[in-house]
C-alpha cells in the first residue's frame, strides 16, 4: 500500500466553512473506497445498483419508495460501521480477547438485523405488488 500523507489529528477540527466540508467529503470518499475493498460491502453495493432503481418501480407512494431504498442504504451503512469496528479491534492486536469477539459479534448482529429488516420490507412490498395483480 502506498504511504498516505499524515496530517495532524486536530486538523479537521480547526477547519471552518467550505474547507471543512470539502475535507470531510474527501474523508467520506476515502471511507467508501476502503469499504469497496471489503467483499460484503462490494456485494451489497452491487445489489443496491439493482435494487435502488427497482424501488422506484415497486413503490407506489414516496413513502414506499423511501422505505425500500432506505432499507437498502441502511444495510450498506451498517456494513461500513461493522467494518470500522472490526478494523479498530484488529488495530489493537491480533490475539483473541473476549471483548474483541463481543465487539465483532455485535457488529455482525447489527448487519444481520439490517439485512432482515431489508428482506422484510422488500418481501412485503413484493407480496403486496404481486398479490394485487391477481
Give a written overview of the molecule:
By secondary structure, the chain is mainly alpha-helical. It is built from five helices and no strands. It has helices at about 10-15, 15-35, 40-60, 60-90, 100-130. The longest helix is centred in the C-terminal third of the chain and has 34 residues, at about 100-130. The mean pLDDT is about 90.
Structure keywords:
0% strand; 134 residues; mainly alpha; globular
Written as H for each helix and E for each strand, in order along the chain, the element string is HHHHH
User: What is the helix fraction of residues, given as a range?
Assistant: over 70%
DSSP strand count: 0
* Helix/strand class: mainly alpha
Main sheet: strands, sense, barrel: none
Mean pLDDT: 92
Number of helical stretches of at least 4 residues: 5
- The backbone outline, from C-alpha atoms, is globular
* CA gyration radius, whole angstroms: 19 Å
Cα end-to-end separation: 56 Å
Beta-strand share of residues: under 5%
Flag low-confidence runs: none
